[in-house]
Amino acid sequence: MAELKHPEEESLENKPWCWTTVLAQSKPPCQRSLHTGVVLENSLYIFGGYDGVQRTNDFYRFSFANSRWTQIVSNGVFPTPRDRHVSVVFGTCVYVYGGYDGYNRVNDFYEYNAETNTWREIISSGNGSPPSARHSHSGVVYEGSMYIFAGYDGLYRNDFHRYNFETNSWRIVTDSLGANEHWPKPRYRTTATVVGDKMLVFGGHDGARQLNDFYAWSFTNETWSEIETLGFPPSPRDSHVAVSFKNSLFIFGGSTGNARSDFFEYKFDEQRWLPICSTGGTPPCSRFCHIGVVYGKCFFIFGGYDGSTRLNDFKQFRFETESSDVPESTLTQELSCLVNNQQFSDITFIIEGKPIYAHKLLLCRSNYFSAMFSGNMIEGNSKEITINNISYPIFLTILRYLYTDQADVNLEIAMDLFEAADLFCIERLKKICEQRIMSSINIENAANIFQASDLHGASNLREASLRYIVNNFDQVCKTASFKDMARANVELVLEILNKR
After folding, report:
1. φ, ψ at 491 (rounded to 5°)
2. Which residues belong to any copy of the BTB domain (predicted)?
3. What is the location of CATH 3.30.710.10 in the chain?
């Protein structure tokens, strides 16, 4: 059964910086923590973890393309149930290393081939030895190798190992004997994230307390350095998740002794930490020992532990709206280029003695022109029509609106354009002009606006200008526009006096 979303979440589906619940078309994995999750091509793969009763070795795939969970039934020799292991992706395969099986820490190593749907155990060759049996370590892939850092093997570790996929061999990159002052201290439940040619390590637990130190390993120079930052970093924590997107690192949740749901961004260009506040949706509840991945322009988290209950909710945070290969529409620009364009023109208007070229098909958006060209009016068969009592610029603006549904209504032309829109029966443009004029009513023009709105049937504008005149009558009645209105329509003056 698909999980239903609140209508508000549906409306946020493609908005940036918002949390939404991922709508799945099938049953998700059961509640769990201490599992792993990796993205391979267009799918999220989740392996193992602890469901509150036992360790598991079930294996699930979530297809981002069709929003469907599938439990993978595969062939070969697959990993035993475990938690606190590491999973990485290389090529078309998912790799699982180490962890805790409920009885022992392990350092076995498995490969799942997504093309053949087959597991196999990897037995390394060469002289190098794999890391000691451990759990709560971290792992990344960089340029053909998997790197394992830190963890717990009976002691808290900060050793660093490399597995070369091509040679099927291990070697130690550096250990504590080669440490310098910038070497991260021993820890477990830290995060390691590859950004560019660096592996970034944040936080963890050293056996005595949570940490929030921040280190970078340079694959190019093979050196550690501590990262100095501005802003306020996340509080010390372990069992959090860290992902990278564009020029930032993102940290969500974890344990500070209590489950957390805070969310931070580290901006590399500014070397600054910033807390993230979503612009909508319902954020995930506090949790640790969850998984977090990036796919496309979204950050996804699944499961974890809130301090009392294992979880299997699936949340998405959108960094950006999805772009599309479909180009943006250019219809408005193309139609705008046809205004007063002789190409394909089938009617010419003479305005103030000058020609304006037009196209009957587009002019028919106006009831005035529609009646002119489709009825028995003499102009219907004419190739050239003269229109008086309208200025050349105003008629061009009318055409531009009919072609594009857009008009730049500045205050200087608003009244003239309003009268033209009324003449040509363009109601929406009348309303646009009416709103623009309404915001400009003052002592000097109130009477003119009242008279014009009465003449052209603009009820809202008429009411607004009448109310303004009544409230400011002692000043308005002394203006030239009021005297002109009184000479032209004494009934309007009587209406004003009756309202006082």
Report:
1. -65, -30
2. 345-411
3. 331-499
What is the number of residues in the chain? 500
Tokens of 118: 């087959």
pTM score above 0.70: no
163 in Cβ contact with 170 (< 8 Å): yes
DSSP letter for each residue of 375-424: SS-GGGG-SEEE--SS-HHHHHHHHHHHHHS-----HHHHHHHHHHHHHT
pLDDT (tens digit per residue) in 199-208 = 999 999 999 9
Per-residue pLDDT averaged across 415-439, rounded? 87
CB neighbours of residue 120 within 10 Å: 16
Residues with Cβ < 8 Å from 58, sequence gap 6 or more?
Answer: 29, 47, 48, 71
Mean pLDDT of the chain: 89
Please list, in sequence order, all residues whose beta carbon lies within 8 angstroms of the beta carbon of residue 277, skipping any fewer than 6 positions away.
none
Pairing label, strands 18-21, 105-113 = unpaired
- The pLDDT, as a whole number, for residue 5 is 46
Residue 208 structure tokens: 């005595």
Q: Tokens standing for 39?
A: 């993205």
Q: From CA 222, how far away is CA 173, in angstroms rounded?
A: 8
Q: What is the pLDDT of residues 472-499, one digit of tens each?
A: 898 999 999 899 998 988 888 898 888 8
User: pLDDT-derived band of residue 326, with 50, 70 and 90 as boundaries?
Assistant: low
DSSP letter string, 468-489: HHHHTHHHHTTSHHHHHHHHH-
Give ranges for CATH 2.120.10.80 in the chain: 7-318
The residue among 144, 66, 152, 142 whose CA lies nearest residue 107 is 152
200 DSSP assignment: E
Nearest-5° Cα angle at 193, 302 to 195: 125
C-beta atoms surrounding 76 within 10 Å? 14
> How much is the pLDDT for 406?
86
In whole angstroms, give the CA distance from residue 149 to residue 191: 9
Instruction: Look up the CATH superfamily of 331-499.
Output: Potassium Channel Kv1.1; Chain A (3.30.710.10)
What are the pLDDT digits (tens) for 114-147?
Answer: 999 999 999 998 788 999 999 999 999 999 999 9
- Amino acid identity of residue 357, one-letter, is Y
**7-318: CATH class:** mainly beta
Q: Which long-range contacts (CB under 8 A, 24 or more apart) does 225-229 make?
A: 225/182, 226/182, 227/200, 227/271, 228/271, 229/266, 229/271, 229/272, 229/273
